[in-house]
Structure formats: C-alpha cells, structure tokens
Amino acid sequence: MRVYLDNSATTRLDNDALEAMLPYFTEKYGNPSSLHSFGREALKAVDEARAEIASLIGAKTNEIYFTSGGSESDNWALKGAIYQSKAKVKHIVTTAIEHPAIIETCEYLEKKDGVKVSYVPVGKDGRVDVESIKNAVTDDTVIVSVMFANNEMGAIQPIKEIGAFCREEGILFHTDAVQAMDSQAIDVNDLNIDMLSMSAHKFHGPKGIGALYIRSGVRIERLIAGGHQERRGRAGTTDTPLIVGMAAALKKAVAMRDEVNARVQKLRDDFIDRVLKEIPYTYLNGGREHRLPNNINFSFGYIEGESILINLDLNGIAVSSGSACSSGSLEPSHVILALGVPEELAHSSIRFSLGRDTTEEEMEYTFNVLKETVEKLRSISPLFNMEKGTGSYV
Amino acid sequence: MYNEKVLKVFQNPSNAGELQDANGVGTIGNASCGDIMKIYLKIVDDVIVDAKFKTFGCAAAIATASVATDMVIGKTVDEALKIKNADVVDFLGGLPPQKIHCSVLAEEAIHAAVEDYRNRQQAK
Q1: Which of residues 10-39 of B touch A (CB under 8 A)?
Q2: Which uninterrupted H or E stretch holds A351?
C-alpha cells in the first residue's frame, strides 16, 4: 500500500486544473504581453484567472501579482517593503516559527542592510500572543509578517487580531498564507491583510507558480527587474498555463473546503487520539485547538525521527520529519524547538499531513505500521528498556 | 538519497540489541545531537567473539552500526581498531555526504568499547 501523508510538502495536481492548463501549453501558447490574437487569447485567460483568485480572497483583480511561488512572494514582500522605505532605521516584526523563506530573508536584511528584526516567540500551542506582537512593534517598524498557519505543526495564528492592530498603527501587515489557502476562509479586508503570499502546489495546483496579494495603495520595490509584466511589479514572461491551473485549483479547493475540512479533521483527531492512547511516550507537538485540519505532528520518545521516516517509507508511507538528520543540517526543526520541546524530542518529530484524498483505510494502515516501527526502533535504542517498557535520556 | 543496500541493512540489521556478557562497552554521542551509538564487545583471548549494538539515530547510523559490528566479529582487538569508517561506508556502497559522520560514530564507539575492555583488564 502506498500512502501519501506529506500534503504540506506538496499535493497531487487536480485533474480539472490539469485539463484547464493543457490548451495553454500547445494551442493557446501566445505571450499575454503580445498585441496579436495569440497574445490576446492568452491574456484573456490570465485576466480571468487573476479575477478568480482575487475574488476568492476578497481582493480586487489588480491586487494579485503572480510569482514563481511562496518563497518568491515572501522574499518580495519583505525586501520590497524594506527597500521601499526611506526611513533611517528599519525594523521588522515576525515570529520564531516562520518558514525559512521569511526567516532567511530577515537574516539577509539584518546582515546586508542593517535592518532590525524581532522574532516573537510562540507558546506551547504554537501560537503567537497578539500582545507580544504589540510589544515588539516600535516607531521604526516598517512591516509585521506573521504566517497564517504553520507548516510544521499547523498552528493557526491570530491573524485577524494582528491585522486589526497593524491597521490601527498604520504598519504594513504581511502574512505567509501558503499552508492556509485551501482550508481557511480568507478575506483580506475582514482580516486587514496588506500583503499575502500563496503557492499553487499546496492546494492541488501546479508547482512553480504562486502569487503575492498587494493591497492597492501599498507600494513595494520590485525584486525582479525587466519587462513590464504584472503592472511592472514582477518582470518575466507570464506563465499562462500555470496561472490558469492555479486559479482552477483554488476555485475547486474553496468549493470543497467545508466538506474536506470536516472529513480530514475527523481522520486527524481519530489518529491523534489513537496514537496518544496506544503508543507510549508519544507527544503531540502544538495544540489541538487552532490547528490546521490536516496537520498531525508527534514526537516519539527515545527514537530518532529520520529512522522513523525511512521505516515508514519502506512500508510505502510518505511523511516528513523535523529531525536534523532528515534536513542535512545539524539542528533539529526551529519550529519544534520554538514550542519549548527539548532537542532530543525535536529530533524525533514526525509530521503527517493529510489531504483530501486521504482515506480511513490509509490511516488505519499507517497507525499499524507506525506502532510496529516505534516498537522496532525502541528495541534497538540505547535509551529504552524493552523489558521494563520505559526509557531514559540520561 | 540512501542506496538500496543501506536501506536493506537498516531494515534488517544484524547484531542489534544488548550483549549480556560483554566485557567492553563503548558509547558515543548524545540524544540532544540526535545520535547515540552504543557498542558491546565480548572479547576472549584478545579476539572479538561477539558484538552487538544499540543506536538512537538515523537510518545511516543504524546501518553503519550493523556493518561495523559484523566486521569486528572474529577479529583481534588490534585488527578491529584498524577498521576505518571509510571501510564501513565502502561496504554500504556509499552514504550521502551529510551522513558520513554516522559512520565515524561507529568507528569511535568500537574504539571506546576496546578502551573499556582494556581498562577492565588492567583493573583485574
């Protein structure tokens, strides 16, 4: 049996999205910037896709700028806002659990441009406290960037409260909504979001395409210089098929949202309950409330995450791990550590990210393989005593 | 990133577990770094007659522990000390670059186990 539980890494391309894309590879291949009929038919498709995506988040059509994906959108939002600002001292407020596309962009701006950055910590439940954001903001704060929902442990952040605060203070508010687009109802006006990053392949769209929503009136410097595409915001030939696929995928994901959320969340909750009950020394990372319906993240005591991942993989189950060993770095996941989880347990964290295709049968199979895997690895762990059924890290 | 051989050894490692009558035990690494390698040796007349391991770590760490313990069984202590992590890596048909340190752990754990054995002999 092959079970895909890594939907936060990427998703299967939706069949309808694929169908919608195909003509734009081979028949309607014109450059949307061209004046002739080939160009015009491509431009029409891009315009419609832009309008569709805009309407799904309560935005205006001309507020959607296509990019190559979430990372580019995150880079552009932060660098664009900082480079646009003429202030002498510039400050960014973000959180300790952001995606590397945000964290590393902040670190780049700190090093290269002397920008000051506050990385606001989160609680055990993985949520940032709105008061901590308020306290971190100074007179020099150019932009606040807080992710909509975390990619590793699924904590949904208090975006509405942060948005309201930033609006009141007149500070730009950006959110990386890459993990939230399919499951969360997002209205940029209701939430007072000024900029929002999204990526198509996280909601069953194609890879290599994303967008940055930029509220009209907000000006940021462009990152990619060249042609006049995207209202001179982002140069590069407009990728018609990917844009068409992205809009079709988002439209479908939003239409299916309530049904999928309910079904997936039930699978998630049943799995969490069962693992906590039947596999000892297992810890759920992040809280159960305000959690993405498809996210499960556990640490398994006395064993290491990458070996769990590989053993599951050898049984056809695809998951991801926050262990240092699986990423090639020496440090375990900064997100799991930010929850206050000790390093040895951060090394043993495993994320199961469900999707709309996930079935009960798959979760049953995954539970059984997981239980065997944990027992097998504990039997060879120097930290665990099988006879006594207990372990110790010292 | 792992080759078939590494995966196969990881799935069915030899010598996994504790060795009750070991007279040389070496432990390297710590849990907060994500790797602990513990090697048990039973040495009779300077020959390693049995070896077992327990590992907290990734698939590469478990596979190298399996291969390293296989390699030392039947060897004299001096011969075992000459086994290098590169020998273990070669036997496995290579490891991803970031996993080479796992094979070093196995080599170090064997050295630590031999040192423990020698200390015990001296104490007698």
Answers
A1: 10-11, 13, 16-17, 27, 31-36, 38
A2: strand A349-353
